[in-house]
Amino acid sequence: MISYLFQFLNLLLTVLTVAILIRALLTWVPNMDPSNPLVRLLNQITDPLLQPARRLIPPMGGMDLSPIVVIVVLQLLQRLLMRLA
Questions:
Q1: pTM for the whole thing?
Q2: At what angle do helices 37-56 and 2-26 cross, to 10 degrees?
Q3: Three-class secondary structure of residue 35 per DSSP
Q4: Which of 70, 76, 79, 74 is nearest to 24 (CA)?
Q5: H/E element holding 44?
Q6: Percentage of residues in the chain with pLDDT exceeding 70?
Q7: Is the distance from CB of 58 to CB of 77 less than 8 angstroms?
Q8: Nearest to 70 by CA among 26, 4, 13, 1
Q9: Contact 53/70 with Cβ under 8 angstroms?
């Protein structure tokens, strides 16, 4: 039972990491419609993680570094989870 919980949490952390990466890459696409269903879904998934990081780390030189910080934290959590499993 606990093994399934660890697998689920590992999958969740992986999905969140990929969602943040896709969201960051989509910012490079010109004329991306913010009302696009994919963009709205990614915003709904990633905003709860990115907003606190944005409050702590302001943009530097016009670049938002919060996705990098959140991905590093997610990766650290994933490694900790794997050690516990």
A1: 0.88
A2: 100
A3: coil
A4: 70
A5: helix 37-56
A6: 100
A7: no
A8: 13
A9: yes
| CB contact set of 45 (below 8 Å; sequence gap of 6+) | 16, 19
Strand, helix or coil for residue 63: strand
Among 10-19, 25-34, 47-56, where is mean pLDDT lowest? 25-34
* pLDDT of the residue at 69: 95
Mean pLDDT of the chain: 92
Average pLDDT over residues 42-69: 92
What one-letter code names the amino acid at 64? D
**Residue 20 one-letter amino acid:** I
Rounded Cα gap, residues 85 and 5, in angstroms:
10
